[in-house]
Amino acid sequence: MEIDKILESLSAGKISVNNAKKLLSLYSIEEVEGFAKIDINRSKRRGIPEVIFAETKEIEEIKKIVKKTLEKSNSVLISRIKKKDYPTILAFAKRLKITIKTGKNSSTLLLFKNPISFHGGKVGILTAGTSDIGVAEESRLMCEAMNCKCITGYDVGVAGIQRIFPILKKMIKEDVDCIIVAAGMEGALATLVSSMVDIPIIGIPTSVGYGYGEKGIAALASMLQSCSLGLSVVNIDNGIAAGGIAANIANRTIRKKD
């Protein structure tokens, strides 16, 4: 029984409070063959969809979790799919006859049964270079799964500082509620953007870089040491977390406006 039906039955006096609590408890966690427990109510409770971290899972495990999740909810994200597994997972998703959204240079898939309506807030997403796009697209898919409209501007880093102004002007005009900035190397773009706008900024240090401070270490340190207030930072390459935070901020903002 869906949550709405349980509450309607309780309101109509068709079931008792104890029965309603039992039904809600049973509905909230879905077990998959003893190896996974899915938090089915997460999207209703927190606005954040189920995310499958595929990098450490076998293909058959991923398939079973996807099927069980889509039985109880509208969408699921599959993140960090191994390169060798991506074609197989994509083919499997197509056989489910549902809508699939992919990201450019991204190993993440967004699957959903019913159309996603972008009635939430607005999120801007920037990357310093083209090598950061995959991580940024992971954030975009997460935001869209949470009903946010995304405005993107890629390859606008400090090596050619003039590139940032047109897209930043557009984001301000569109009144975005939050901006995600993905940057590798020294990660300077996040500080720059934070110093120019009165919008919350979420920095994603990416594992782009080499030598001293390689694999995102320099970008992470730089963003954490930023002297520009209004900038928060997630872990290296953590596009999913940045998207979840940004969408929560944007959606809460839109509720306040209403």
From TrEMBL:
Stored SUPFAM superfamilies: N5-CAIR mutase (phosphoribosylaminoimidazole carboxylase, PurE)
InterPro entries (alphabetical): P2CMN_synthase_LarB, PurE_dom
GO biological process, one term: 'de novo' IMP biosynthetic process
Domain PurE: 121-256
GO molecular function: hydrolase activity
A Pfam match: AIRC
Highest taxon, organism lineage: Archaea
PANTHER family hit by this protein: PHOSPHORIBOSYLAMINOIMIDAZOLE CARBOXYLASE-RELATED, SLL1489 PROTEIN
Protein name: PurE domain-containing protein
